[in-house]
Every structure is written in C-alpha cells, then in structure tokens.
C-alpha cells in the first residue's frame, strides 16, 4: 500500500463537510432534511461579476497570470484597503490566492517550524487547527467563553502567550460565533500585543462586510499601526460577493512574508484562476448595493431565528454581531432523555439526535472547540429556517 504521510494522517476532513455528507445521505434515502450546515451565501454571484468573467474569457484572459495575481486586481485590492479599511497598502505587497484558505495555509507553511505554537481563540473556524498541524505547528486553543462574548480578553491573551508562539489568529466577525471586536476591544488587545514583539498576528477578515451592529468596520492595524510589520491581513471575495466557488482570496503583510508565500504558491498551485481574478476585480469595483441588500436579508433571518431558538426551553443563543451563523447553547438539553430512551450527554449526541429525530442538520460545537453548542447557518431562505426552528422546537418538547 502507498504510505500516507504523518502530516496528512494527523489531520481530519472538515467536520462541516462530514455533517453535510451525512445529511445528504439521509436525503438520498428519502428522508426530508433541513440542511442548516452550509457555510456559504445562498445567493447567486451578482450578474455584473458573472458578466465580467464571461467578457474576460472572450477577451482571451485564459492564460497564466503573474503568480501573485494580475496587476489590475492587486491594484483594486490595495484601493479596497484604503477605501474600506483606511489602510495604505502597496499593490506590490498583495498576493492573490486560491481562496482565503490557501492564503492562511501558505502563511503557516511559510513560517512554522516543527512545534511552533499558533494561538487559536475558540470557538474557531474548523480549518485553523488542522492547517497548523499540517504545517508541523502546534495549535494552542484559547477558550473564549460565552460570558466574554466568545472573544479574547487582554487577560486571556496575555496568559496564553509563550516564547514558542509564532502567530495569533483573529477572526472577526467570527465563524462560528459571529463575535466581532469593537475598536476599544482591539485597542486593549493591541496593548498586550505590543509587549510581545515575537508574536505575529493573522487577521482573517473574510466576514468583515457581514456585520449587523452598524459600527464602522475597524481593523487592528487602523487601531495600532505599529503592529503592521508583523501582521498578515487575509481576506477574499467568497462571502461578501457570494463567490465561494470562484476561489479568490488575498493577503497583504510584511514584504518578506508575502515573498515567501509567493514562492510557495509558485511551486504549488501557481496563480489563482485568471477568469476568477477578472470576476474578483469586477466584484471589488461593484459598489455596495449587493452587500447592503444581502446584509438586510441576513439580518432579518438572524433576528427571526434567534428569537425562535431563544424561546425554546433548554436552548439559548447570543444574537451575533456578524457572519451568518447562530452559535446555539444546548447545555440545557444535556441530561435529558429522548423518546427512544437515549440520554443526551454531549453536543455531538444532541446534533445526531436532531438529525435523526427532527431531520435538521447542524454542526456540533465540539468541532469548533467549544461545547456544549451547535452551529446553525442562516445562509438559507427564511421559510426553510423557520421550518427548521419549528422542527427543533417540537423535538426538544419531546425530551424528558
Ligand atoms: N475563513 C473563515 C473564517 C471561513 O469561514 C472560511 C470559509 O468557510 C474561509 C476563511 C475560507 O474562505 P475561502 O472560500 O475564500 O477559501
């Protein structure tokens, strides 16, 4: 048999794909399933973006581009940072990647030595720890409790930093909790970070435009520009413009790091798709209408479904400031017994029971490093979400 390397056997496939696969298998077997697992917008990519991609194909933009992305797209990204984040970025210091995911992976691959630590606040996006492990690093999980709004505090951050820490990850708004840092909270974290110059910071801003609190988006570097020489900003068009399948992400940061990521990319995937780059360019220059419209739809779903779930005895959920997920506390269901006589003891069991008995697919908090919770995606139309919430309410009512 072919040997599979340790760097692969120590990681696992994404738990959200596993949950989706299970729901789809039940669906194929004829069961009605409300799938609330999805981590992507349910909208189509806007027409102007699709048309820009078609036009690029017809113009013959179908060849390799510069490894780090077309000059036109990198310029548009630099303009975006100035326009939306009030950050001055040179287009030469931008790399366009195959989704934000490959920016994060290449950054770890370019910087981690065996055993180097990466601080990952929990609940976290499922891929962070596995990407660190795949790059021989050591994920160090920093628990961010619901009482703290699922956010790092200056104290929890300071207590977690060791001399082996290479990176701190900040994902705001967060997948799965939606938690988003305020300017004052970023200021307080920056004050701690200034004390530890060996620590680099990676901000994953992929949900920056899906934010409900009307506070202008604030970036750590706007609050504290002195962190610029050790901060990598990761972003992309996937969530903002409903472009998950186009696979365009980007990053900017210190020159040496961007160069190292470029070298890795040049010897692995090479440039991101030329056609998708043309689409991303159109997206970044498409104004704010799609963003505003989709945000209002998410907001309506968030308010409606959070209220319904909070009315179910045994469940509670903090109304998130951002992203398109609800992170639902199911601690009140633990210890209860199902109609089939099973005593529920973990969020994993709650999630399997919800799938089997209610036909509702969600992802267990265990996958995100903080239990007992489940993540419910609101990137589905409101009637389906309301139906799902009713099914959950009925199932919970049947518990003893
Ligand atoms: N970062 C977070 C927090 C995400 O939730 C996701 C997608 O689920 C990504 C990054 C990946 O984005 P992309 O599709 O651009 O690779």
UniProtKB/TrEMBL annotation:
Family of the protein in this entry: Belongs to the class-I pyridoxal-phosphate-dependent aminotransferase family.
UniProt name for this protein: Aminotransferase
Gene Ontology molecular functions: pyridoxal phosphate binding; transaminase activity
Residue stretches making up the Aminotransferase class I/classII large domain: 33-389
Top enzyme class: transferase
GO biological process: amino acid metabolic process
InterPro entries per record: Aminotransferase_I/II_large, AspAT/PAT-like, NHTrfase_class1_PyrdxlP-BS, PyrdxlP-dep_Trfase, PyrdxlP-dep_Trfase_major, PyrdxlP-dep_Trfase_small
SUPFAM superfamilies documented for this protein: PLP-dependent transferases (SSF53383)
Lineage: Bacteria, Pseudomonadati, Pseudomonadota, Gammaproteobacteria, Enterobacterales
E.C. number(s) listed in UniProt: 2.6.1.-
Cofactor: pyridoxal 5'-phosphate
Keywords, comma-separated and alphabetical: Aminotransferase, Pyridoxal phosphate, Transferase
């Amino acid at each position: 048999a072919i040997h599979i390397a340790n760097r692969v056997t120590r990681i696992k496939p994404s738990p959200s794909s596993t949950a989706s696969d299970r729901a789809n298998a039940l669906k194929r077997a004829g069961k009605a399933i409300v799938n609330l697992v999805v981590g992507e917008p349910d909208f189509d990519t806007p027409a102007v973006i699709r048309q820009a991609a078609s036009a690029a194909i017809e113009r013959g933009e179908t060849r390799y581009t510069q490894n780090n992305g077309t000059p036109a797209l990198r310029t548009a990204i630099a303009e975006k940072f100035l326009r939306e984040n009030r950050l001055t970025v040179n287009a030469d210091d931008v790399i366009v990647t195959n989704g934000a995911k490959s920016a994060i992976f290449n950054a770890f691959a370019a910087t981690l030595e065996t055993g180097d630590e990466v601080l990952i606040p929990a609940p976290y996006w499922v891929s962070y720890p596995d990407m660190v492990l795949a790059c021989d690093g050591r994920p160090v999980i920093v628990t961010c409790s619901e009482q703290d709004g699922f956010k790092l505090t200056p104290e929890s951050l300071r207590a977690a930093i060791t001399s082996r820490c290479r990176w701190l990850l900040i994902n705001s708004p967060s997948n799965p909790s939606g938690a988003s840092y305020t300017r004052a909270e970023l200021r307080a974290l920056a004050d701690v970070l200034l004390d530890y110059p060996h620590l680099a910071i990676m901000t994953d801003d992929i949900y920056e435009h899906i934010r409900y609190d009307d506070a202008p988006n604030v970036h750590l570097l706007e609050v504290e520009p002195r962190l610029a020489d050790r901060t990598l900003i990761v972003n992309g068009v996937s969530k903002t413009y409903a472009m998950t399948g186009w696979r365009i992400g980007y990053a900017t940061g210190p020159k040496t790091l961007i160069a190292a990521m470029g070298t890795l990319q040049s010897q692995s995937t090479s440039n991101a798709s030329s056609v998708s780059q043309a689409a991303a360019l159109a997206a970044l220059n498409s104004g704010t209408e799609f963003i505003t419209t989709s945000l209002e739809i998410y907001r309506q779903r968030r308010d409606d479904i959070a209220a319904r779930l909070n009315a179910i005895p045994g469940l509670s959920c903090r109304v998130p400031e951002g992203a398109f997920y609800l992170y639902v506390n199911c601690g009140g269901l633990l210890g209860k017994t199902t109609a089939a006589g099973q005593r529920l003891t973990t969020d994993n069991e709650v999630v399997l029971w919800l799938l089997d008995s209610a036909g509702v697919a969600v992802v267990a908090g265990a996958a995100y490093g903080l239990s007992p919770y489940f993540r419910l995606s609101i990137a589905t139309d409101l009637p389906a979400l309301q139906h799902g919430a009713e099914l959950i309410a009925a199932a919970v009512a049947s518990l003893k």
